[in-house]
Amino acid sequence: MRMINLIVIHCSATRENTDYSPERLESDHKARGFLRAGYNFYIRKSGEIVDLRPLEQIPAHVRGYNKHSIGICYEGGLDASGQAQDTRTEAQKTSLIRLIQHLLTRFPDSRVCGHRDLSEDLNGDGVISPDEWSKQCPSFDAIPEYKELAYGQRKR
Q1: Which domain holds residue 46?
Q2: Is residue 63 part of a domain?
Q3: Cα 64 from chain centroid?
């Protein structure tokens, strides 16, 4: 098994009023030159967790971080007009927490963050601020939202 130290949350950057199936996600990633969908997991609006890539296989979701990370994508991330917004359903929020807890049990030293948190630190101050984000993804602030999950895992 590869060494994992990072769990990255993504959104599919699709409108909240549009369904985006795992098959469509896979097809779109293949059209961009990937062998398959780049994420390990995809969470539908219903809360269904879809396995996309086995954990043993390096995902393709964040350039420079793939080798030691797991990618989780939730369906949505844009409001009906196409603007970045946290569109997670209650079912998606519940599934994300369960999945992250499970992954932190297997990989307890992992950090949880959003895709945007891995943008380049343009001013070199050690903090990725909103003006430095290369993307809005996952359209919510994942670090504080899941901080207690990761912290609770480390206390055990």
Answers
A1: 6-155
A2: yes
A3: 15
